[in-house]
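Hello K.,

You asked for the raw outputs rather than the summary table, so here they are, unedited. I folded two proteins back to back in the same session to keep the settings identical. This is the first:
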Amino acid sequence: MSQGGAAGRGSAKPQDRGWAWMVLLAAVVLQGLTLGFPCCIGIFFTDLQHEFQASNSQTSWFPSIMVAVLHGGGPLCSILVKRFGCRFAVMLGGLLSGLGMVSSSFCRSISQLYLTAGLITGLGSCFSFQAGVTVLGYYFVRWRTLANAIASTGVSLGFTLWPLLSQYLLDEMGWRNTFLIFGGILLNCCVCGAIMRPIQLASGSLPGSAKPGEETGSRAEEAQLTNGASPHHPMPQQHTRRTKCFQVLQKYLAFDIFCQNKGYQIYTIGVTWMMMGFALPHVYLVPYAIHNGVEERKAALLISIIGFINIFIRPFTGLLSGHRVFTGRRIYLFSLAALLCGLSNFICVISAEFNVLILYCVILSIAMSGVGALTFQVLMDVVEMDRFSSALGLFTILESITLLIGPPLTGFLVDITSDFHYVFYNSSFFLISAALFMGISFCALEKKTKLREASKAHLDNPPRYQYSETSREPKAESQSPPAVEYITSI
């Protein structure tokens, strides 16, 4: 495949039409296979406890590691995407996911599951999912909000189908054979990756000697990072090594954006705190229902109800948030959805009857639709698309820490007290506090920015978003992706 660096003005752009919709379809399937997969782990919770004689805390480490690695492998995924392209990252992730689940079917201890299903499958899902999210930002410009919302319906489909399939296979074949079949299903990520062919965007400024996989503008970044160093004024060798190390960290973890962009800083901290409680109902809802006398099939149906409602609510949320009224204000919709998630948990505390749990799942699903549809869209609002992959890496690795420790700590509390109500108390505390923090902080930041704009009206480059700090980086054209090529092996 030729490297299309030469693109004249007025050349046809591949965004928002043609093959972009096939990529969107692949992204829907991909998110169902990856981000939707951990929802079914609760189905196996009781069987794994009996098989390995493990406590709630020990068993919960298995899905916690999977979800944490799925989100926290962002920097590695960022490196793969920038070096080899999205197609390679997605297909490699599919291979790792399948290998991890096949290996899990032969595990003889719960600690082995931590490595196979937790680490390997989680890392593979991370590569496939995050590379799929990144490529959507380049294939869609005008319809980017809608595309992200539609892609997130794949998670809803996964939430609907994975629990039903898991319960059926578990009843018929046992958990080991079920995990073996899951390995084959996850290999379909490779098919989705094959559809995500490299994209070539028009640009009159791409350097003709750019190497495959080199990030556009990397030379400018290096010049900034080396603080003006040039061949005429070389730096000491040790200083050069430290500078290169800093370059790598800044390139793939976006520490510079975190320090300079207050909107990105607040959003990352808020979501990281929120994730301490966000995953708890997904891990413990089925065990909680079974513990209170609900049949296993009905308990599995609860997760499917959440996913089924998400299928219809997420696109609506995406369309609503894409209206120009919410431009620059989607963070408030996100905070409201997180607040509703936290408040809904109190329903489970009131009663554990099946009908009450169905009501809980309906309300939780509506709130989750807002969180799921807006998470990455808000991130795209806060940072520029040419740094989105790096910003996503830092964003996900921070939230993965709380995703990792949240369920085991809550499981330890349940083991001590033998009271599942603490699951929902903890979840509500983290969700509500995070929602209030983000909403109030962005409101204050917006007022501060308006005052700054009023006092500096003579500036030529006002902030792009009402809650964004003025960036030191050059701004891209409005609603246009950066001049970037994705070069991959074919």
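The second followed immediately with the same parameters:
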Amino acid sequence: IGNTVLHILVLQPNKTFACHMYSLILSYDRSKEGPGSLELIPNNEGLSPFKLAGVEGNTVMFQYLMQKRKQNLWSFGPLSTVLYDITEIDSWAEDQSFLELIVSTKKREARQILDLTPVKELVSLKWNMYGRPYFCFLALFYILYMVCFTMCCVYRPLKPRTGNRTSSRDNTVYVQKMLQESYVEYEDELRLVGELITVIGAVVILVLEIPDILRVGAAKYFGQTILGGPFHIIVITYACMILVTMVMRLTSTTGEVVPMSFALVLGWCNVMYFARGFQMLGPFTIMIQKMIFGDLMRFCWLMAVVILGFASAFYIIFQTENPENLGQFYNYPMSLFTTFELFLTIIDGPANYDVDLPFMYSVVYFAFAIIATLLMLNLLIAMMGDTHWRVAHEQDELWRAQVVATTVMLERKLPRCLWPRSGICGREFGLGDRWYLRIEDRVDPNKHKMMRYTEAFKAQERDNYDKGSEKLESNGDTLCKKGLPALSLSRNTSRTSSHRGWEILRRNT
């Protein structure tokens, strides 16, 4: 019951009341240390009160709980050293990481906790010491891997075509070699080494990605933009295309260019994932994802309807015409593709003015130009501009969340020997087996002195106002008759108290 009440207090809108009641309930907890403590008992979702405060974005409760956990190590003048308990914050030994919960939640308030002490210092320590070097090395390794795969595709085994052409539009001059002919010369063996590296890399990608899908869930794993959800879809699809290409090569099946082309596009697009390691480029990946899966997906439905309707109209108009003179609409698939190019203004209106054009072509093309080019394309630009404006106001916050997600990902993937635990064990200071982060803080005495003077001025003005109010209540008739002198006296008194305060400030300076 006590643990349930603690979870309820974390969700309370009245933060001051919740903090006082939280302390009151914990004062009756007999097992304040160890696994039996009320603060360490999780709810049905596996969240302790501390983690729940982070997921809900309750910064007041989070700071209150952190103040309870900190230990003042020493203080000397304006300098002080504090030990913050990072037992539930550090993701090193946690199955359900606190940092991963913050960046994966849909509440924007939760990401504000990344700016609070000691979360900000812990993430900065992990990223600067281990995360950034490993991430840059991984980016370089992936680019070299994609260069190797691209060279294998460019120099894939081909031979001249020997069969007769079946159509005047047939333009094929090379065909794919059979498996027995593909690995004969020295250049083929060199290409085989690159192909083996490519296949091994695809298998490693699947081995690393599938356990995370099973642990987190497909919907959450692919749906979270900050966690790199779309890029996970891209890299898994890329690995599957590599394996399909390998099977087609081993079975001498024609048409391997289809999965190979998809793999090249997806593999090189995945390079944008590594832009999140840089503050200048990281927010742009979020912007691209939001535009593609937000604005562009909604716009594609409207675009498909318009293209389908006008492509059908163009095909019907030119269905009775000679395709040799007007070949852009000679069949229905070609009509769809030509209309798509017209929609994006890639080509001009396909018309042969050496022959008589149907009258309806001019009418339909005029309506298409007004709807597609002037209306819908400008609508897409306006939608993307609005998305850019919204993301630009959150770019620093989004980049910090990307850094946290990348750090947690690398910490889970890399062996423990390459990523030691951050912080200091509490045994060194007689604080048990908990882990702490030492943070040095410098208190500016001038700032606090100025704050005290400001409060003193406010107190003097408040006292003068109270005294003036008492005089008005006791001598109402007299003050009504002598209003102007009383007002002048009040101003002089206020001026005298302010003058006294400034004299104190000059003397101390």
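Residues 125-163+171-276 form one domain.

Happy to rerun anything if the numbers look odd on your end.

Regards,
P.
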